[in-house]
Specification:
There is one protein chain. By secondary structure, this protein is of the alpha+beta class. It contains 33 helices and 21 strands. A six-stranded mixed sheet has the order 4-7-6-5-8-9, sandwiched between helices. Strands 18-19-15-20-21 form a five-stranded antiparallel sheet. Strands 1-2-3 form a three-stranded mixed sheet. A hairpin with a 4-residue loop joins strand 6 and strand 7. Helix 4 packs across helix 5 (about 105-115), helix 14 (about 350-360) packs parallel to helix 17 and helix 24 crosses helix 30. Mean pLDDT is about 90; it is low at about 215-235.
Length: about 850
Amino acid sequence: RQIVDALNLPRLEVENYEADDVLGSAARQAVEGGLAVKIITGDRDLLQLVEPRIIVSLPGKSLSDSKDYLPEDVVEMLGVRPDQVVDYKALVGDKSDNIPGVAGIGEKTAVSLLQDYHTLEGIYEHLDDLSSSLSKKLVAGRENAWLSRKLATIVKDLPVEVDLERARPQAFDPQRVEALFRELEFRTLMTRLNELQKSYGMSPASKGQQLSMFAAQLAQPSQEIPRKAALLQTSPAARKVVIVNTPETLAELRQRLETAQMIALDTETTSTDQMRAELVGLSFAVEPGAGYYVPVGHRQAEVKQLQLDQIIAALGGALNDPQIAKMGHNIKYDLVVMIRHGLAVSPVSFDTMIAEWLVNPASRNLGLKNLAWVRQGVQMTPIEDLIGKGKKQISMAEIPVQQAADYAVADVEVLFALRDELQGELETSQAAPVMHTMEMPLVSILAEMEMAGVALDTGYLSQMSEELRSRLEEIEKKVTRHVGVGFNLNSPQQLSEALFSRLKIEPSDRSARTATGFFSTSAEALESLRGAHPVVDLVLEYRELSKLKSTYLDALPLQVNPQTGRVHTSFNQTGSVTGRLASSEPNLQNIPIRTELGRRVRNAFVAQPGHVLLSVDYSQIELRIVAHMADDQTMKAAFLAGQDIHSATAAAIYGLRLEAVDKDMRRRAKGINFGLIYGMSAFGLSRTADLTLAEAENFVAAYFERFPGVKKYLDGIRKLAAEQGYVETLLGRRRYFPGLKSQSNYNVRSREEREAINAPIQGTAADIMKIAMLRIPPALKKAGLAARMILQVHDEVVLECPKDQLADCAAVVQQVMEDAYPLSVPLLTEARYGPNWGEMKIVQ
């Protein structure tokens, strides 16, 4: 509504009616007034409105593939006339609109009935002419049929007023629209607005002017939207850019850096892989509006470049001076690249990407260009404008030095304005301590882990890949025998035809179709059909093995760094809203460990000669955090007594002695222990724990009776999140849930409520792990041990440790992890070791 109003366009609304009804009524009124109408929509329900003077335009695979539907096109698409669409819906239903239809009546049957009897009334008047089975379905579903038709029918007589004169596109205030687009983070639309203004001879920065797309009479917008003052980017002509390629300019830069309080830095490289990237240039700024660019790797330089060892000798002191703070955007990448090229950087004090993420964990503006635009009104040059994209993309090393310098200095000088704004928000949201005592110190730790990498047994992966290839071929042959013809199992269209046309398998959801009209073969659709036919189970196995083979067995060897011989994943601090670390290139957190084949992939990650891999894992850390936060005496007593929490939970719920609990009881108790901290309802529990809904409800009731502290805590978190709009971890990390305060949409509110329950728990677990990671390296160094952290996945840390130091390393790491944060129940860990990540045994 805000956008429509800002563009000065009239809008039609009728209280308690859907947009379809308003469209139908407006179309009817327009036709009665002698006009023709075209309705552009993505909703096929509107096909019922089609007539000679009303066309409905529906998109194909994309908006550009849209098609206009005349009456004959509706018949060709659905098999029924536009006036029969509601009767068709009455029979087949529509899950997406909660229209039940008649159970057992499919699309072909509905079309056939309507071709013979024309209307729903006609069908029910001729029940005696139908087969007994079809007649029974229609009789049993009579009530649903009439209800469904009522639900599917678009209202055409609402009291809407179509004022054609008001509907002409009128003038609008570009500044008002720009302010709203910035608030809503519509960067692409902002570009289009600027292009529109330019096409009418208006500068995007013009003030107090209005714009009419169709040269209509100017009209003053009805209200003003307050606009946040924007710090516009210094133009390239006004910004001072010094290219450092002489001893004199290098000396000038050295003096500026050595006397600075804060250095903003960035690197220009040949790759996004920090362990393979070649250094092209370095940029520095110590104040807004000016900066230095040091070219070192331009291949066709139009100006000379200094030797890297000269630069290291001149700048190394300032870059490693503990009294001079350093900042950047995604600075860990620059840190790794610079260290690899001989430039140590310390201390790393501020990262605008991490700061934005802490202020708003769900932010879509973690990239520097988006962040500068949304927060400062600065429209920066996209990297694609320099190097292109796709097949025509070139390396940054091919860019002329002056052009690269202008681009690079713009990236560092804007950081000062962003830092000032973000630092204020960090303090307002009380996230500054998390930023400065946890996240920023962790940057250097993660950089060291990324550079260390992990060794990979590529021969093992090749052998396993061949094993899976043979099994995939075997599955293809079995499927062909069942179906009768060979086809591409990776083709959704061919698979859909094989399953639902050739094998006549009944889809679990007939309304779930692809854009091309075939029944869906998504993972969800096939999982719901598991066991319905051997081919379904074979296809599911095929997909699992195929994904494992392509994602890990074949891809991992390609990611071995040719210089180090190891795999170097990238740890992303801002990759989750909960605070947990993510990993990418490769993603080592998604290796499936619940299947035997998935666990075998871990066997490929090996220790270097003379070493073993040491894995230390927190034991049930999230449930221990729940016990502490909820202060539930029963749960705390179980942990303090060293009992298995799931068995203790089952004993409490069933009223049994601990030794009387069997595996099935423990499994159900485990389901509810983890389910409730993820905001799961009784319905969700019934699905995961193999219970009826009534059993699940009784189970939940019994659980809360035995663990009243947990119920009080969960109820309190829901209420607190709704009242203040955010929740916090024990260490003060916040996650915001605006939907709980302002969103009336039930689905959004339910999702946010579930996430609000879990966020303090999972977030605290992430915080505790990060504290441990900060303390492990200095603790190992103090003990004179040579182990180093190489991986962090979920609640587990993996180290590479000399064999003769295993026991000492395990003791140090376990002690640090268990003492990371004081809870009212003990934090326990389990240490395992082995020649690889998969075959490990407990450290005695």
